[in-house]
Every structure is written in structure tokens, then in C-alpha cells.
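On clarity, I found the account of how folds are encoded harder to follow than it need be. What matters is that the chain and its backbone geometry are given together, residue for residue. For the editor and my fellow referees, an illustration may be useful. For illustration, here is how one protein appears when written out as sequence plus C-alpha cells:

___
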Amino acid sequence: MFISNAFAAPSAPGGDLLTGILPMIVIFILFYFMLIRPQLKQAKQQKAMIEALKAGDEVATSGGMIGKVTKVTESFISIEIATNTVVNVQKHTVQTLLPPGTIKAI
């Protein structure tokens, strides 16, 4: 016979459980510190900023409106975007609290 028989390679010795799980643990730790933790921190800051809103604050909404807060209720705020022009928006749409005097500078 010209063709030799093919035999299966001997099975690898049983790997240590830690060696198999260690890469997944390292990936999860990196994922937590690079993605999850910063996002939770940013959400916490955003929530604190929204809860601290009061009349007279200058804000920018996620829709791009810039104005001065005139009234704050439980879930809505009233924003004066021009003289005698007031719009009501949901609190969670407030993206940024602007420094005082920003509207006059625009």
C-alpha cells in the first residue's frame, strides 16, 4: 500500500480551568473600566444637573434650542427662547447647563 493510515492526534491534556476563563475575565474587566463605568458616571452627572435646574438657568436642549429657564415642574420646564416666546420641554431633553451670560453673547 502506498498510502499510510491517518490516525487522530492524541488529545491535548486537560487544560486548566483558569487558563480557559482568564481571557474572558480580563476582557470583562477592560470592558467595565473603558465603557460601562464612564457611561454610568456621565449619566449620574446628567441626572444631578437636571435635578438642580432652577428658574434663571441658561440651558441648551438636545434639539438645539438655547434659552433661559422660566419655570420648573416635576417633568417639564419652560424655556424662554426669545422675548415673550416660551416653550415647554421635557426635563430629560436638557443637554447642557450653559454659563450665565451665554445667550447675550450669541
Remarks:
- The longest strand covers residues 66-72.
